[in-house]
């Protein structure tokens, strides 16, 4: 093998190994109380990481800090090796300008519990607007892409409907199509099914599963244990603002190490079920 060919393969390997998201010793404090207390997390390209834990353990705060919706109080978050929210100056680190942050935030998409669609826009426009406004696609390109994505989430017939005419599950699938439309480096989900009636949860989970199969890098905060077990490459468990287990799903569910996780998992998932009852 020539030296040049060797270099190329090494670069390719490095690229595969480098985390898309790296969280280092992240700290976030609300009114003197830590919501995140030294969290470390790495998410590699194509990985799906499920974040589980009791209410108030810091799951939303974690994804919101990654998406720069919250100021952080310590530690750092990197996207493709680039520090988020700060820039290096001769005098040290300085908070990035709003514009700089916006540029970084374009590389991520978050899907919220409440779908946050624009009510006065059609489904199509909800999905195509960010690619046009933020990413500079032509309206034709964006429309074509939006229609394809809406077909993929099973909503081909709804492109010209308004959000109020859709079920919650359909609205959330639009929100997912919208998040994907900007080709983000990472997709963040914060309990995407917890505002839905039980009979609508399955269709949204299936949509997320399909995305996962398409090699997307994703962090999914969820209470859906079956889903996490089936879809995630790694499950992480948070309690009291700390990330206390980070394991492949089979180990996570069948051999929980910490007492907190054992208590959190129901008996049917290998836990003691004490914290849920
Ligand atoms: N904007 C805020 N102001 C003050 N405290 C906050 C704020 N957001 C979160 N917290 C606190 O931070 C802690 C972590 O909250 P967070 O919303 O991250 O928990 P969670 O794990 O997402 O819980 P849930 O499962 O209920 O969504 C909680 O104690 C919460 O009360
Ligand atoms: Mg939350």
TrEMBL record:
Q: Where in the cell is it found?
A: Cell membrane
Q: Which GO terms describe its cellular component?
A: plasma membrane
Output the InterPro entries linked to this UniProt entry.
Answer: AAA+_ATPase, ABC_ATPase_HisP-typ, ABC_transporter-like_ATP-bd, ABC_transporter-like_CS, MetN_ABC_transporter-like, P-loop_NTPase
Record membrane topology: Peripheral membrane protein
Domain ABC transporter spans what residues? 21-265
Q: Name one Pfam family in it.
A: ABC_tran
Domain of life where this protein originates = Bacteria
The record's keywords, sorted A to Z, are: Amino-acid transport, ATP-binding, Cell membrane, Membrane, Nucleotide-binding, Transport
Which terms does the record give in the GO molecular function aspect? ABC-type amino acid transporter activity; ATP binding; ATP hydrolysis activity
State the family it belongs to.
Belongs to the ABC transporter superfamily.
What this protein is called in its record is: Arginine ABC transporter ATP-binding protein
Q: Which organism is it from?
A: Nesterenkonia cremea
Q: According to the entry, what is the taxonomic lineage of the organism? A: Bacteria, Bacillati, Actinomycetota, Actinomycetes, Micrococcales
């Amino acid at each position: 093998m020539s030296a040049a060919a060797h270099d190329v393969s090494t670069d390719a390997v490095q690229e595969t190994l480098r985390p898309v998201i790296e969280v280092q010793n992240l700290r976030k404090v609300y009114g003197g109380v830590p919501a995140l207390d030294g969290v470390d997390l790495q998410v590699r390209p194509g990985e799906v990481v499920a974040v589980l834990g009791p209410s108030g353990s810091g799951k939303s705060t974690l994804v919101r800090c990654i998406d720069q919706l919250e100021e952080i109080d310590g530690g750092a978050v990197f996207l493709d090796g680039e520090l988020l929210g700060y820039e290096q100056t001769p005098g040290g680190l300085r908070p990035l300008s709003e514009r700089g942050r916006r540029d970084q935030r374009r590389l991520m998409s978050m899907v919220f519990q409440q779908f946050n669609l624009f009510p006065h826009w059609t489904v199509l426009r909800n999905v195509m607007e960010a690619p046009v406004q933020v990413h500079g696609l032509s309206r034709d390109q964006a429309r074509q892409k939006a229609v394809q994505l809406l077909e993929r989430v099973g909503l081909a017939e709804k492109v010209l409907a308004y959000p109020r005419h859709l079920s919650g599950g359909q609205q959330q699938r639009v929100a997912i199509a919208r998040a994907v439309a900007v080709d983000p480096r990472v997709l963040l989900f914060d309990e995407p099914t917890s505002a839905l009636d039980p009979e609508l949860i399955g269709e949204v989970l299936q949509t997320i599963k399909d995305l996962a199969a398409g090699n997307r890098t994703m962090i999914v905060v969820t209470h859906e244990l079956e889903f996490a077990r089936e879809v995630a490459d790694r499950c992480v468990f948070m309690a009291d603002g700390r990330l206390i287990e980070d394991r492949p799903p089979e180990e996570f569910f069948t051999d929980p190490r910490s007492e907190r996780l054992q208590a959190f998992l129901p008996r049917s998932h290998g836990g003691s079920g004490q914290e849920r009852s």
